[in-house]
Sequence to fold (178 residues):
Amino acid sequence: MAEELMRKELIQAHLNMRTHLYRVIDGLTQEILMKQISDEKQFPHMLSLIWHIGGAETYWFHRAKHDIGPKFSIETFDDIQAKLRANTDGIRRVVSQCDGRQIRIVPPTTEGGPSVAWCILRTYQHGLYHAAQISKIRHMIGGIPPLSSQEDTWSTAVDSVIEIVKKLHDEKLGQITE
Fold:
């Protein structure tokens, strides 16, 4: 896949995950976000799951030596979208400006890894996983308003990585048949 197309697809996958996450957390209040949902010490409430999504992003990009921003932290509902948007801005900047070799998918277990492309795909999948948890928790806790939109942001987000894999596969097949 051409480098610029891969950059565009990676950024779009991240944005689709974010759109879904924003839909899932829309309408939640500070009180609901802080309601204990688990006896886990590290992730006792929904706010901690959202913090975990942003924290994983800053962790992996830092590990790849491409900082997207300072260590992620949120304390209140008001912090959530501002801090997540700051991470997204950092991710866009890094993906747009990084060396072309960083657009190849290189896991952390391989020399030179993790690459920026790997970080995007890893944090994209991770974000979707926790967004699904938050969505399910919304339905389990009483007194939470239903999702305000019926838009299918889940399928769009999930299909983003399928599109990347399909384009990479088609490109590989094209190279084999040439």
Q: What stands out?
A: The chain has a mean pLDDT of 90. The chain is about 65% helix and 0% strand. The two ends are 15 Å apart (CA to CA). Helices lie at 3-25, 30-34, 46-63, 77-97, 116-140, 153-177.
